[in-house]
Design goal:
about 250 residues, two-stranded parallel ribbon
């Protein structure tokens, strides 16, 4: 595949490792970065450099010549505000500045926690569209709201294209009843990332990060802009998980 490299931050995490493997197998040239060492053998066509999101120059160097930045780095769970602010807010600014310099597209790993204080839908009533009001449920969710708004700013002001993926529960398989609504399979996430990289034009987009779950909490989004449709479904695991209550 002849094209510019793709930068993947958070490459040493569970989702980063999976995406590194799948995107390399799809033929992409990858630049991987994380604070933690990469624990797996490097995929073909990939290189790994340890870098801190808080260090602007390090991020700029890794992004040089890249077409797309898949931003999965930063704190991925609820933490005290002072722990969240550096990687999730300052670090994101460095990502967008690097993208602006390079003319790169940003794919931002946002979260369902941006809208976590909405009431859960009942059946098909009350499902949320992409343009619903933000209602973050913690400092982590608040940082993801900030990330989506930064994407809006950089698209409006600088023309930096971005796709904001509000990930539900991305796991090898759903593990509780809530997953019947929120589960995103690894293959569906990987295929989404391929389409985010290859799509001709995305502007500022928001996509619900969930598989083809009939019980989903979420409805309209911008997935048509990238030409993506999930193939997996949490329904295949219903008998196994529908009585398992989440914490």
């Amino acid at each position: 595949m002849s094209q510019k490299p793709v930068l993947l931050t958070g490459a040493s995490g569970a989702l980063g490792r999976m995406l590194a493997r799948e995107l390399a197998a799809a033929g992409f040239t990858l630049r991987l970065t994380d604070l933690a060492p990469f624990p797996d053998p490097l995929p073909k066509g990939a290189r790994f450099v340890r870098a801190d999101l808080n260090e602007a120059l390090a991020i700029v160097r890794q992004a040089e010549g890249c077409s797309t930045i898949l931003h999965f780095g930063g704190n991925a769970t609820e933490q005290p505000f002072e722990t969240i602010i550096e990687p999730n807010i300052r670090g994101l600014y460095h990502i967008y500045e690097a993208a602006r310099r390079e003319g790169a597209r940003v794919v931002f790993a946002s979260s369902n926690h941006t809208i976590g204080f909405h009431e859960r839908p009942v059946g098909n009533q009350g499902k949320l569209d992409f343009d619903c009001q933000f209602r973050p449920d913690g400092y982590y969710g608040l940082s993801k709201v900030y990330g989506e708004l930064m994407g809006r700013l950089y698209w409006d002001k600088h023309g930096v294209e971005n796709v904001n993926v509000r990930i539900g529960s991305c796991l090898p398989k759903p593990n509780n009843a809530r997953g019947l609504s929120t589960w995103l399979s690894y293959p569906d996430l990987a295929s989404m990332m391929v389409r985010c990289i290859l799509a001709e034009r995305v502007g500022h987009s928001v996509i619900w990060g969930a598989s083809n779950n009939p019980q989903s909490f979420w409805a309209k989004d911008h997935r048509d802009r990238i030409g993506w449709q999930p193939k997996d479904s949490a329904e295949d695991f219903r008998a196994e998980i529908e009585k398992v209550v989440s914490d």
